[in-house]
Structure formats: structure tokens, C-alpha cells
TrEMBL record:
Residues 21-307 form the Histone deacetylase domain. It comes from Metallosphaera cuprina (strain Ar-4). One of its GO terms (molecular function) is histone deacetylase activity. Pathway: Ketone degradation; acetoin degradation. The lineage of its organism: Archaea, Thermoproteota, Thermoprotei, Sulfolobales, Sulfolobaceae. SUPFAM superfamilies: Arginase/deacetylase. Keywords: Acetoin catabolism. It comes from the Archaea. This is Acetoin utilization protein AcuC. PANTHER family: HISTONE DEACETYLASE HDAC1 (PTHR10625:SF10), HISTONE DEACETYLASE HDAC1-RELATED (PTHR10625). GO terms for biological process: acetoin catabolic process; epigenetic regulation of gene expression. Gene3D superfamilies: Histone deacetylase domain.
């Protein structure tokens, strides 16, 4: 059995935007329920995040911005960015606890755990001095930064339907972190970055890898890109830790993104990384992320955790979509073209 820890605090559920805002913590509570019903918590330890420590934020966020979030957290109204991320009462505390979950996850990996899970993490759009895309603080980049205290090489694999722009910007010149993002890329689609030529700067040149996928990309084309690009890059970089940002909005039923991954496609991705991690003695930190079909996102996270726990497939079969999805030849050709461009830029 692989020594696995699940980091959780009920306060995660407070990070949920009011009214008809699409980001709801219902995803996390549903996933936890699916895992409880199937006895997952007999097979892994559950730990609470380390006590809130706002100093963790200052490694990548500006003091002014942190102070601004604290103020808005008391006011409980207005916006934290230019439109998508509203403030609510307690937004500072509930954001910080989710950051602490990811940071605690990587600390526990340095203390002997092989896999750590924080489905409350994955808020990859937050920037140094601004919220963005429903993300207040960037726990993905902050966890990598914390991980640098213990590990030499860390990889981030971001499979959210949107580009991991905040993570990219915060770690753009970092030579110790490989940042890979696969995402939908289309005119007018949020956040508008994540083209192939964005590949890092300074000491981080070449360590940012973007795979911009066309709408309609299904499991077959996605896994093709993953095998052609992500697996060789991970093998070449040899990370001691792989952080997975597993946003559930690449799912075919997601209302905000037009990628077409199924739960089986997601599982195939996690399985590839899991196998590689054991072959190369890397550790895994699995984080959540976006996901606006709440049930699909909860199912994705549950089958992924089952993979890390080596739980027999039958036990989660009822949570799966029927089958792998396929891509039209028109879209497949576009994906192949993107893959060739990525290979060229990164000499794969
Ligand atoms: Zn394992
Ligand atoms: Zn997303």
C-alpha cells in the first residue's frame, strides 16, 4: 500500500461564492461523501492543515494585496478582481486555509508520505497582487515554493480546462519547477494566455510548457498529447514531486469549457503519472481546481484518489462515465499540429 494522506478541513466549504456564481464547494463535499461511502478513509490518513500562517502567502503574494483581501473579507462585498471573483465575509480565512492544505500536503511528502491529496487546492489563476478567475491565493505555486525547501525538482501538471496562468506567472523564472499546462485555447476564452511560445524566462526558460487544445478535444486526442509531450518531459526532468492540478472542468459535461474528457480519460492521466511516480520514486501531491459540473468533478476526484490508493476498479465503477470519448478527425488534426509545435519549442 502507498502511504497516502488526505488533507481536509470542514472550513474548506466556506470557500464558496454566493448567489448564482458557478464556483461552489459542493464539489468538495460531494467528493468527500463518495469517498466516505466507499471506505476510502480506512485506507489513508486524514490530517488537518497546519495552523493558518499568513507568512506563507508572502513568498509569492504582495503585502498590499494580502491586506486588501483581509479588508474585503471584513466588508464582505465588492470584487477582488475586475469582475469574476467577488468578496464575501471570511474570504481571507477560507482562502488561507485552502492554501495551508496544499502547503501541508507538500510538507507531509517531505516527512515520508508518498501521496498527499488536497481537493480544496488548485486555485491556479491567482496572481501576485490580484485575484482572478475565482482564485484568491495561488496555493499551487505556494505549495511548489514551500516544496523547494525540501526538494530539488518539482513538476506541476495542470489539467484544468483553463490555462494555469497565475502559476505560470508566479514561477515563470523558477529553475526548480517544471510547469506544464494543458487547456482549452480559443479566441475570447478565459484567461487568454497559454500559447506554445510562452516557455519561461531567465533561469526558468524552457520550464514552462503550454499545450493549447482546441474545443472538442476528447480523451483520445488529449491522451495522445499527454503521451507525446507530458510523459517525455516528466521523464527528462525527473521531478522528486509531481503536483497535479486536477481541475474537473475539462469534462465533457462542464458548462464553462468545451473540452471532452470523461472520468475514464481523467483516470488514464492520473494512472500514467502514478505509474511514473512509482517507477522513478517521485511523490505526488494531488490538488483539485475548477469544475462547474459539481457531480462530474466529484466523480473525477474520487476515481483519481481510488487510483492513488490502489482501490480495485469495481469499487468505483458506478461513478464512471460509460466510455472514453473520441475526437473528430478535424479536431484531431489540430491537436497533432499543436503537439508538433510544442515538441519543436521544447526539443522533444
Ligand atoms: Zn501509489
Ligand atoms: Zn478551470
Amino acid at each position: 500500500m502507498h502511504k497516502t494522506v488526505f488533507v481536509w478541513d470542514d472550513k474548506y466549504l466556506d470557500y464558496s461564492f454566493p448567489g448564482d456564481h458557478p464556483f461552489k464547494s459542493l464539489r468538495e463535499s460531494k467528493a468527500k461523501k463518495y469517498m466516505e461511502e466507499r471506505g476510502f478513509f480506512h485506507q489513508m490518513e486524514v490530517r488537518r492543515p497546519d495552523p493558518p500562517d499568513e507568512n506563507v502567502l508572502y513568498s509569492l503574494h504582495s503585502r498590499d494585496y494580502v491586506e486588501f483581501v483581509k479588508l474585503k473579507s471584513i466588508e464582505g462585498e465588492g470584487l477582488l478582481d475586475y469582475g469574476d471573483t467577488p468578496a464575501f465575509k471570511g474570504v481571507f480565512e477560507s482562502s488561507l486555509i485552502r492554501v495551508m492544505g496544499s502547503v501541508t500536503g507538500i510538507r507531509l511528502l517531505s516527512q515520508g508520505y508518498e501521496h498527499a491529496i488536497n481537493i480544496g487546492g488548485g486555485l491556479h489563476h491567482a496572481q501576485r497582487s490580484s485575484a482572478s478567475g475565482f482564485c484568491v491565493f495561488n496555493d499551487v505555486a505556494l505549495a511548489a515554493k514551500e516544496g523547494e525547501k525540501f526538494f530539488k525538482r518539482i513538476a506541476i501538471v495542470d489539467v484544468d480546462g483553463h490555462h494555469g496562468d497565475g502559476t505560470q506567472a508566479l514561477l515563470y523564472d523558477d529553475p526548480n519547477v517544471l510547469k506544464v499546462s494543458l487547456h482549452m485555447y480559443h479566441k475570447g476564452f478565459f484567461p487568454g494566455t497559454g500559447e506554445v511560445y510562452e516557455d519561461g524566462i531567465g533561469a526558468g526558460k524552457g520550464l514552462t510548457v503550454n499545450v493549447p487544445l482546441p474545443p472538442g478535444t476528447g480523451d483520445d486526442a488529449y491522451l495522445y498529447a499527454f503521451d507525446e509531450v507530458v510523459m517525455p518531459l516528466l521523464n527528462r526532468f525527473g521531478p522528486e514531486v509531481i503536483i497535479i492540478q486536477e481541475g474537473g472542468d475539462s469534462h465533457f459535461d462542464d458548462p464553462l469549457v468545451e473540452l471532452k474528457l470523461s472520468t475514464r480519460g481523467y483516470l488514464s492521466i492520473i494512472r500514467r503519472i502514478h505509474n511514473l511516480a512509482h517507477e522513478r520514486s517521485s511523490k505526488i501531491l494531488l490538488l483539485g481546481g475548477g469544475g462547474y459540473n459539481y457531480d462530474a468533478t466529484a466523480r473525477i476526484w474520487t476515481v483519481s484518489v481510488a487510483e492513488l490508493l490502489a482501490i480495485p476498479e469495481e469499487e468505483v465503477e458506478s461513478l464512471h462515465d460509460c466510455c472514453l470519448t473520441s475526437t473528430t478527425s478535424f479536431t484531431m488534426d489540430k491537436v497533432k499540429e499543436v503537439v508538433e509545435r510544442v515538441k519543436k519549442v521544447h526539443q522533444i
